[in-house]
């Protein structure tokens, strides 16, 4: 590198594009790459990127030496550069600033004979996926990856600041957590072992040791499905809380998602704009649900079993989709009143010193539907020709079912109490109807579908043992898990959120393949 280039690294100071608001009028040095360039007569308009954003430079032939002008003009896409110039605020510029270039050094010139493969024209998905390592340099992909990082950080932050202890479960495991059909098997010194599908079973143990815990790590599923929602390797964050029931679990999911969306909105408006995300859709998620939140009640709640319902509220024994909107609580002025922090049987925390999971920290309440209500909604949609196939009562919700339901709401919707037979072996039956599981799936709005799956766990030794046998799971591999019910068993609950599903929803993406640096899918393990 020339003497000039070395000097420009130290003097003037190196800045990042994202920080230029603090440098208006200053001369700064940026280090990055040429993203694109336009020429108009004796003016060059190079667009630089540095990983934090993009900025347009202006190089009038008359304002710089012949040598600098020719050097800028020679730049090819993705050549790396060190550029010095003064920062000017410009309301018309997409980033709000422009750079009057004074000097530029080339660190590496991409040869014109072997240009950067991803040009500014349209490319097919396969081509882009094949070049994922380069594709991620484009402004949109970079913005998504920055938002992903914030979502992961906000997710951890929520638990770290609410009294949870992070406990890391193993990735190599001897048994299945989420059903045996999607296990990646490997040879563990002659014994079969599997890549983990979820840390849940292990953090049930750490929850009974520490009270409130969470895990965060990669999980694996040999999903044969080629959908826009499925990866074979994805990241899951999972809280687990001793003495917490399903109601507490749902409140936790609500507060957790609210924190994540609030944080992304606070830190990434510019990135969301680059992606073309409709920000109003995200604002609606955290908007207060007052003055009269529409709380959709379960049949049992309507029958008066829930303290949230007042005696004057409509008593509708058969909440059908046609009258779901009619099954509304009396006007609730204060959202805290609508969801008491503890209902009978709810123990939201074991740690008296820890801040409680306060509903008041939530922006607005998320709508809730029981599985039965969801089924009725789907039956009606099918009858009206809005769904291609009918939903069979008793089955889990399919992707089109989730898409339909979640496109009916502008906030995440919580579907609870699925038929126990359609769900995992570890879910606690609902005492009010033991054919149902005390579980919840949170479906992201705008048709995104499931982003969170959670439940209250079976806490009886006898029932859990019977369930393991019914599901043809190897009892010996679960002895340690049964120990959690032998020694000081308590009601406990938790959930798992797939990071990539959350990123796809928050960024408004069509497919999870853009949500992770290097996606792994049914037919892709390169690059
Ligand atoms: O609903 P799931 O299967 O629940 C569990 O694994 C529980 N053990 C979690 C718990 O209660 N601690 O998966 C949880 C979430 C889903 O809601 C989804 O967001 C994500 O993990 N997920 C996937 N994401 C991408 N690709 C896949 N193949 C996924 N499978 C699940
Ligand atoms: Mg699920």
**Ligands in the structure?**
4-amino-1,4-dioxobutan-2-aminium adenosine-5'-monophosphate, magnesium ion
Distance between the termini: 31 Å
| Strand percentage | 15-25%
Radius of gyration: 27 Å
Calculate the mean pLDDT score and round it.
Answer: 87
Which residues form runs of ≥5 with pLDDT under 50?
A: 1-9, 291-363
Question: Would you report the number of β strands?
Answer: 18
Q: Which structural category do the helix and sheet elements fall into?
A: alpha+beta
Q: How much helicity do the residues have? A: 25-40%
Strands in their spatial order, largest beta sheet: 6-10-11-18-17-16-13-12
Question: Could you explain how this protein is built, in words?
Answer:
With 527 residues, the chain is of the alpha+beta class. The chain is 29% helix and 22% strand. It contains 16 helices and 18 strands. It is elongated and about 85 Å long. The structure holds 4-amino-1,4-dioxobutan-2-aminium adenosine-5'-monophosphate and magnesium ion. Magnesium ion binds next to strand 17.
